[in-house]
Specification:
Length: 89
């Protein structure tokens, strides 16, 4: 009878263990503004320049520059020269 009680207790503890875990706090990030950049709908890199308050968004050989405060597009799809260099190890 002791084994029945201990196995029942073990099953109950195993079932309740996930409930005892504390949920992790989520970061305080939230969307403040959405800026439509047009096609393509996927982008390669997004970089924020905190000194100039500009967001640089690239896709292939195009870069879109967005004002980080107002969300206005400063320069739309500038064609830039792209060169690829292999990394040698």
């Amino acid at each position: 009878m002791i084994t029945v009680r201990s196995s029942t207790l073990a099953l109950l503890a195993a079932a309740l263990l996930p409930l005892a875990a504390f949920p992790q706090q989520t970061p305080g990030y939230h969307v403040t503004k959405s800026v439509p950049l047009g096609l393509p709908d996927r982008w390669d890199y997004v970089v924020y320049d905190s000194n100039a308050h500009r967001v640089y968004v690239s896709h292939g050989d195009h870069v879109t520059v967005v004002d980080g405060r107002s969300g206005e597009i400063i320069a739309a799809q500038l064609a830039v020269q792209v060169s690829s260099y292999p990394i040698r190890t």
